Every structure is written in structure tokens, then in C-alpha cells.
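Table 4 source record.
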Amino acid sequence: MSIDWMGAFLIGFIGAGHCMGMCGGLASALSIGHQQNSRMIPIYYNTGRLLSYATIGAIIGSTVSTLIEFTQLNQALAWLRLVAAIFMIILALYVGRWWFGLLAFEKIGQRFWKYLSPIGQSLLPLKKPLYALPFGFVWGWLPCGLVYSILTWAAISGSAVNGALIMLCFGLGTLPAMLLIGYSATHLKKIQQSSLFRTIGASCILLYGVYTAYAALILLSFSL
């Protein structure tokens, strides 16, 4: 298993508290009015959400790798790695609640979200539990700083497959918390939002970001 896949999963798990805050209430509300098969709704919703992440990762990974291969600008890949490292550092500061600059990128994404959100809203209220699948796919494009940070990894992954897998692993990391909140469980939420858990997780992400930045700078020094 690639270290990037494991890192993406870890970030998803650590940062799931953010996902619970943004989407958790909605995921729980979807089950209202569906006494039968209501337990399947969180599964359908999160399956759609993960599929959307994989799709975004495939698009970004394929586009960037194709451009680099076509232009032969290998130095651009090193610069992209540096950008990804910076995003990791910003993400670490956000997870640790030391600096909230990551939220500025969510505001940028909201400009595009206003065109997508009506599609998801048109599916509400859910006529059938299965409708939670396409709803989750649309809601996976909700502006999220965590998603944008992992997308920078997908951009430098080298292919559509690797980009999709990185985003999928990130989504899988968020899955336990999102499924549990869909079933009204709160124990995991308390753990993930504890200061000790956040500090340890943020420190791990920060170290990886610094390491990635150092590796990117070394590549750039050889190419200059």
C-alpha cells in the first residue's frame, strides 16, 4: 500500500470531526420519514460521497499528469509537490486549531457550490432510501478545506487511478465517524474532537508536510 494512501486515510480519520460538523446533521436528517430501511440511508449517502471523492481525484490526477507529460515540464511537478506540502502544513494548523487559514479556500469553493447545491436539493425529501446515493455524490462536492488539501496530493499522484485511490482512502478515513453519526452515535466524535487526539494528529500531518516540502525543495535545487 502506498504511503500516500495511508496518509490520506489517516488525515480523513483525524479530520472527520470537521466532516461531522459540516455534513453530520444532514446525514442524520436524511433518515427522517423512512422508518423502513432507514439504516441503509447513511450507507447509500456515504457510498455516493466516496464515489464523488474518487471521481474528483481521478479527474485531477489525470489532468495534471497529462499536462506534465504533454509539456515535459518535470520541474512543474516539483513545484506542485511544494504546493501540496504547504497545504499539508496549513491543514495541520487547522486540525490542531492553531490557525484557521484553511477556511479561506472553502469560501472560494462556495462560488461553484451554488451551482451544484440545487441538484442535491432537488432530491429532497428522499422518495426512497436509494436516492441517498446520488444525493451523497452531489454533496461530496461541498466546499471543504480538507478535501482541497488532499486534492493537491491527487494532483501529483501521476495518474487518474492513483488520484482516485488517494481520494478514496481519504473518504474511507472519514467513513467510521460519518456512519456512526448517521446512527446517532457520539463516542467516536468525543475522541476525535479531544485536544490530545487533535494535537497528535496535527503534529503527524505537520511533520509529513515539512518532510514533503523538504523533498520538493531538494528536487527543485537539482533542476535549477
